[in-house]
Amino acid sequence: MQDSLRxxxxxxxxxxxxxxxxxxxxxxxxxxxxxVDVTVESAPSRAQLAQQGIPEDGLLLGLYEGVPLxxxxxxxxxxxxxxxxxxxxxxxxxxxxxxxxxxxxxxxAHEIAHHFGLDDSALHALGL
Length: 128
Description:
The chain has helices spanning 11-23, 27-30, 46-51, 87-93, 97-115, 120-125; strands spanning 36-41, 62-65, 81-86.
């Protein structure tokens, strides 16, 4: 997408969208988000792109790094799972602020679904 068509916003406004997306989740999901850190980064690293099989010029909107709830056994004394939302990638995929709002909500929900053990094929089957 051409840079002139790319929607942009301040980091503070973008982080507020991520917080709103999390806060809008149903309570039954929020209560099970234990030991999960949600962060905003400007862009994914080369290693993160490679790990996901995405070319360096590709877009990675969000990333879940951790042990899904469905795979946990003897789980304790570990670093938090991490969900990262990549602002520049989201902005590059969107041409209006409204599209950014929608994409942030979808991306947050998608990455949290990974925390609950749903992989990309299961999410696709559910229409997400």
